[in-house]
Amino acid sequence: MYKDRFLGTDTNQLPLARELYEIMRSYPILSPHGHVDAQMLNENQPFINPVELLIKPDHYITRMLMSQGVTFDEIHSGDPRTAWKVFTSHWQAFRSTPSRIWMLETFNSLFEISDNNLAERPDYLYDQIQERLADSDFLPQSLFAKFGIEVLATTNATSDSLSDHLALASLDLGGRVIPTFRPDDVSDPEHPAWRSSLLALENSSGQECGSFESLMKALRIRRDYFVSRGATATDHGVLSARTINATQDSKESLFARLLAGESTPEDASTFRAIMLFEHARMASEDGLVMQLHPGSLRNYDASVFRDFGADKGFDIPLETHYVKELAPLLEVFGFNPNFRMVLFTLDESAYSRELAPLAGAYPSLRLGPPWWFHDSLNGMERWRESVTETAGFYNTVGFIDDTRAFCSIPVRHDVARRFDAGYLSREVARHRISKSDAVELAADIAYNLSKDFFRL
Fold it and tell me: Which residues form the signal peptide (predicted)?
């Protein structure tokens, strides 16, 4: 592969870009938000086949294939070799997408495959990968060490036992696997598992949840448990960033209506906004970093959700606003020295209009990197150009891979580091920063920003 890929095209800037990239690639990987299964790491079993390893966990792959007329069954059911041929026969659909870049980088770095034409030799490639999967050094825990991961955060439901994390903490992996507290299941009364999740919360916390006050007690118990297992953050996948600072009486009456099944859709929306505020209150108390991921209409296709479940590539972005929505929260916690929040968006129009001005003013806020559909070379470019002049570099956090595809973690970080090395070299060429600034920023973007803000 071209050694200077993604570092930029200006030959005058390449020497500095190479130098900055070497600085960035020397740092271990910090992954403070992702969705890799801790059970997979703990059990440490061989990966079954190339489809289970590379295709099924990657919703970018799934949604692109379905856009080309491939059915979900063709990808996820039946013979894996057949599914692999379906994938390779549609390889052309991934041209110029980040999925293609990540896949080629993975092929090259893990399997020593440099063939760009997957469709021509699908069986050969399948067999070559399958043979590699049988090697003892390709077990999940061996790969964890090989990838140079210092911290890998998973995402865990409110009542997760975290037994796999406890087991992993006793192993010498070369890095840590920590949980992230994600209370969406009990914070959204329209969540299909809301009532069962409340019952699970009661069982796991030992605290009944018959009132709003008792619900808060139960959540604090669980947050403390997550902290005891190494958690440093929470994650909130919400439809809207709306927050409400409600009175205790109104919170209790609303929760009672929800439990009685007498609520309206507006009641559900109000409860979500109240809960987001209350999660911020708890974050200001226990110091867990609050990650806000709004603006995704989850499980958009009802038939895919019904037949195959959540997280199958059919979460679709919505227009998202932050300024008015977060005002009640920031009024109370924006300057609290113990409160920290990372803001993400799928709505790029909010970058310069809302997000950068907010993060450029409140010490509690940082901007998360381009998320999901915008986790791409073009997306990184748009993000840096939109937010840097207002928020600077130091009101952002480092790269976050946000992936279920374990083997894509190192290549995603590498692509981001290559882009940022090129971007910083261009900033020097534009006389906006000095070379010494760029050298310092290279280390901060690759490692220090996430290390410090997430308290890793």
Answer: none
Q: State whether residue 337 is helix, strand or coil.
A: coil
pTM recorded for the entire structure: 0.95
Cα distance from N-terminal residue to C-terminal residue, the chain: 33
Burial class (CB in 10 A: 0-12, 13-18, 19+), 154: buried
Q: How many domains does the chain have?
A: 3
Q: pLDDT tens digit string along 14-43? A: 999 999 999 999 999 999 999 999 999 999
DSSP type of residue 211: S
Which of 16, 12, 1 lies closest to 420, judged by CA? 16
In a domain, 380, yes or no: no
Give the CATH number, domain containing residue 119: 1.10.2020.10
pLDDT in tens, 394-422: 999 999 999 999 999 999 999 999 999 99
Domain containing 90: what range?
Answer: 48-135
| Counts for the chain of helices (H) and strands (E), in that order | 23, 11
**Residue 290 shares a structural domain with residue 350:** yes
Enumerate the H helices of 334-408 as residue ranges: 350, 356-359, 377-391
Give me the residues paired with residue 322 across strands.
none
Q: Is residue 402 part of a domain?
A: yes
What dihedral do alpha carbons 129, 130, 133, 136 form, nearest 10°? -120
CA angle in degrees (0–180, nearest 5) for 62-63-68: 100
Residue of 271, 268, 39 whose CA lies nearest to 156? 39
- Please, are residues 241 and 269 in contact by the beta-carbon 8 Å criterion? no
